[in-house]
């Protein structure tokens, strides 16, 4: 004869296993990116360091990476959602390269479908971690839902130092310099 306490243990076990199955279905998903934000990022590409001043502006179809390489040049990477990107400097060298991509800037929901990998402690933050297959691992603070870092398959690491939701860079700063539009510019593609 199975005693009542053992029966209730079995019932508890069944309830618990059902609960575990539910929690798989209820896996956390990454917060979509705010439609406009400003972030200061520390990038590490196998030991080459950069500070990136990132202005994400989905509302106005544009994304700006202002890149300071360690003891190197300040470089501007201005991306439009129509696929055109301008890479330029504003120093005396007046270089500009125009690149056309098939796709525009990242959509706010670009992390949809990422595979949940669980939780990790990273630089003092408890993070949910997802893998965007063929691309990167994404770490988001469990409490604030802000991104903490993402690591590309290439090994390039992006560490988020500030994250200001709703901050927008003034329109005049989004104007690529005139030498980006010279047809005879040797650096244009
Ligand atoms: C950058 O990454 C390299 C490994 O690729 C590591 O050895 C180095 O400590 C990192 N530097 C910083 C400042 O995180
Ligand atoms: C995309 O938009 C930018 C900014 O308005 C413009 O300079 C560029 O010429 C456009 N590119 C194409 C392919 O229309």
Task: Please outline what is shown here.
This protein has 189 residues and is mainly beta.
Would you write up a description of this structure?
The protein has one domain (36-185): Clam (outer membrane lipoprotein receptor (LolB), chain A). Helices cover 12% and strands 44% of the residues. It contains 1 helix and 11 strands. An 11-stranded antiparallel beta sheet has the order 6-5-4-3-2-1-11-10-9-8-7, with no helix packed on it. The termini are far apart. Bound molecules: 2-acetamido-2-deoxy-beta-D-glucopyranose (2 copies). One 2-acetamido-2-deoxy-beta-D-glucopyranose (NAG) binds at residues 80, 82, 84.
How do the helices and strands line up, and which of them pair or pack?
Layout: H1 4-25, E1 36-45, E2 48-57, E3 62-69, E4 74-80, E5 84-88, E6 96-100, E7 115-122, E8 125-132, E9 136-141, E10 147-152, E11 156-165
Antiparallel strand pairs: 1-2, 1-11, 2-3, 3-4, 4-5, 5-6, 7-8, 8-9, 9-10, 10-11
Residues 80, 82, 84 line the site of one 2-acetamido-2-deoxy-beta-D-glucopyranose.
Helix amount: 10-25%
The secondary-structure class comes to mainly beta
Count of helical regions = 1
Distance between the termini: 83 Å
Shape: elongated
Per CATH, the architecture is Clam
* Sequence stretches where pLDDT stays below 50 over 5 or more residues: 185-189
Main beta-sheet strand count, sense and barrel state: 11 strands, antiparallel
CATH topology: outer membrane lipoprotein receptor (LolB), chain A
